[in-house]
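Severity: low
Component: inverse-folding endpoint
Summary: output formatting inconsistent between runs
Steps to reproduce: submit the following structure tokens with default settings.
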């Protein structure tokens, strides 16, 4: 049976979510909510559902809602997530929230704790790894074709430069030093953790180009971050916001190399390439200036070039998990996963503010499990 869904927040992302829910057989969109009446009415009319102008009214009038999809934004794209998510979870509703889970790590911790207290599914729209290339990458890892992980390199940033720059005018962006850091780093940190595990150490060097400084734009848009994973793998994250243009790999690339091979995903959803490690006959011979040669490469194109196809794939996964009543700690792209990305973001900010010192992120809440659902 399809799950009854209500959406809160109906700007661009909220309407994109609404379109996804209307097309998904596991979803029954019954209500939408926005404090701006015209936005709520327009989306409600488009999809033939009920419009509300406060979350309380929606929860009171729709007691059978299974899921509240929180698509509000706010400062740093996350300051309006906490209140509706907490209100919905307090009412016993499962919640899918846009990223970042919040623009304050203290609030994110409280949200994860509330989900545990109420035994509801708190998911986050970490949509970048719900793709065919990510699925193929996981196959390479689980089949042993990567081996012991050695490095993880992630680049993410809009193509741009000085000629295309324009100062931000939105009050929710202008004057916010950490807008890019908080709004943008959730995805790459979540991606790196998805493939390589928890991060134990963070060191960050953060700045902005001279053309932003001349425009009195305080956004810290260039993020150079070195990390270490619990499995011993080392990683590097380079993020920028239209200050330059990445070459190889496109606007989004993630490369993971190990003792048996290496993969690289390009443009998030479009392509993955795998290089096996050299066999002994092709090993490097430094004395002959031979760097070795591997087989391949093996290139797999997804056939998808539309990044927005990540949204229905991620939303469907959440609907699947809730429908199947998976153990709470097995929810894909959970609130705890989103909290991890925010803890790393906070560690990066602390490192930057302290001149690039090494910072250990705040520990995540331990998984406890539920004896009623975990019988293995």
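Observed output (run 2 of 3):
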């Amino acid at each position: 049976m399809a799950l009854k869904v209500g959406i809160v927040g109906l700007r661009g992302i909220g309407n994109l979510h609404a379109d996804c829910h209307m097309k998904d057989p596991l979803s029954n969109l019954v209500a939408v909510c926005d404090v701006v009446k015209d936005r709520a009415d327009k989306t409600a009319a488009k999809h033939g559902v009920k419009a509300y102008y406060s979350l309380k009214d929606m929860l009171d009038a729709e007691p059978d809602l299974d899921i509240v999809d929180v698509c509000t934004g706010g400062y740093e794209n996350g300051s309006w997530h906490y209140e509706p998510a907490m209100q919905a979870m307090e009412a016993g509703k499962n919640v899918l929230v846009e990223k970042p889970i919040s623009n304050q790590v203290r609030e994110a911790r409280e949200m994860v704790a509330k989900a545990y207290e109420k035994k509801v599914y708190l998911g986050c729209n970490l949509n970048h790894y719900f793709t065919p290339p990510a699925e193929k990458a996981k196959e390479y890892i689980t089949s042993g074709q990567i081996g012991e992980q050695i490095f993880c390199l992630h680049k993410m940033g809009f193509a741009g430069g000085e000629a295309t720059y324009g100062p931000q005018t939105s009050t929710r962006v202008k004057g916010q030093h950490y807008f890019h850091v908080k709004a943008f780093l959730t995805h790459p940190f979540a991606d790196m953790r998805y493939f390589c595990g928890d991060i134990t150490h963070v060191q960050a060097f953060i700045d902005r180009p001279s053309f932003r400084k001349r425009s009195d734009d305080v956004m810290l848009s260039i993020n150079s971050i070195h990390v270490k994973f619990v499995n011993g793998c080392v990683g590097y994250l380079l993020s920028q916001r239209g200050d330059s243009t990445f070459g190889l790999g496109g606007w989004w690339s993630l490369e993971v190399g190990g003792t048996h091979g290496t993969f690289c995903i390009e443009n998030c959803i479009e392509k993955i390439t795998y290089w096996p490690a050299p066999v002994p006959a092709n090993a490097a011979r430094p004395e002959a200036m031979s760097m070795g040669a591997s087989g391949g490469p093996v290139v797999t194109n997804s056939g998808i070039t539309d990044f927005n196809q990540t949204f229905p794939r991620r939303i469907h996964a959440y609907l699947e998990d809730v429908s199947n009543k998976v153990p709470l700690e097995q929810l894909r792209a959970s609130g705890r996963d989103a909290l991890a990305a925010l803890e790393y973001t906070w560690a990066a900010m602390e490192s930057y503010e302290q001149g690039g010192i090494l910072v250990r992120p705040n520990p995540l809440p331990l998984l406890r499990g539920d004896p009623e659902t975990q019988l293995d």
